[in-house]
Amino acid sequence: MKTFKYITLFAAISTSLLFVQCKDEDDNVIINATCNDGILNGEETGIDCGGTDCLPCGEVLDFSGTFIQEDQMGRPGINTVFGTTGFKDSFNVTVPSEMQAAFQSKFQTNLLALNPGYTTNALPNGGLDAATFTTVLSRDVLWLAQTGITTYFNGTEILTGRTLTDDVIDVSLLLIFGGPGGTDNPGLTSDGVPANDVAFSSTFPYMAGPF
Amino acid sequence: MKKSKFFAIIGGLAIATLSIVLISADHIDAPAVAGTKADITDFYAFQGTNSSNFVFAANVQGLLAPGAPTDQATFDETILIEFNIDHNNDLKEDIVIQAIKRGDSMYFFGPSAPAFSGSEGTKSTISTSTPYSVKISTRDDVQITDKNGMKFFAGPREDPFFFDFNKYNEILAGTATGFDNPGDDTFAGKNVLSVVIELPKSMLPNAIAGVNPYAPNTPIYNVWVETKRKQ
Predict the structure, then answer these.
(1) Phi and psi for B58 in degrees, rounded to 5?
(2) Domain residues of chain B, as ranges?
(3) What is the pTM of this model?
């Protein structure tokens, strides 16, 4: 009898330790693992709801269903610049592994429409010819370095990520219009807007507050 | 020679104008998504101030006017925002982080392996893992969740994109021959809706080198963002 009582008490203590509340200082509810086990436990006032751990009862969260792609983006401005009417929508609903086969030749046509004088661009090692350049761009993913500086272009590092301060438009204009030396079409290789109108923060969430 | 090249360019631009609708970086990039709550305007991926972390940011619903009440700029409960990460350069997502609105909060799932990948990757179901959440911020009430080394934000931000887009369109239309210096930032004073995630790099599988010819020895991920609508 006494032993049984002791065990019960021990079990109760152990159980209460399992249900340490998961609400943080900012009042953000972090759903506890017990909140989806289908039984009334912890401080729940209903099955998997209420108390300090779970969402309020009556607020049923349904995350079910199938979701189908409507828009896609890797590098900045790819579909905007190289897509044309008739395939912009289909580009947005194509997966990256199938983009090159579907869109590279169309991108090349549009690159040469934008700059009929295109030969190569100012990327290192002789630049990229129209076919190679549009092959890279038609796979619309952003390269992100696992280690080191992440930037679209900072004067040294090339295509290792995209930070908020990167002047991606000037990089794109230069590679499309600047020719192998970056000196062709000088009026078209920079838009004259080198930075954002508001400074960014060095702390999360990095972007400036809204107007 | 120079002159003919110049006219060739202008001619080319004029032809392009007929078929290209331009709002950058990806703002209103295609007819089917323009103006919808699924329209991605920008995507950023970079090393955090803490160099052990990555930051992923997606902006949707561009060109929101200053002071726009939040009912003009709300996330949609039927739109899933999905960050995709490919670590072995086959252009197929290996890891996703999913974000979707419920009530007054944004819920985040992952990083975890997606249910569908590669050619089936246009389709998604939401992970059954326990989500993180953050209350959606307003201009004056900024909410950040900081949990298990991850940070989460969702809400309006100043549009970080900068571009003299109006001049670009004039060039394409043939009414201007080049940019001004200084130019005029078309996106100054505009807002977007942002979803921002910071997470330890250690939560991701290692990337591989040989992907980026300009950084051949650096391990590189392929990353992108998608919006998907509930069927």
Answers:
(1) -125, 135
(2) 41-163+184-229
(3) 0.84
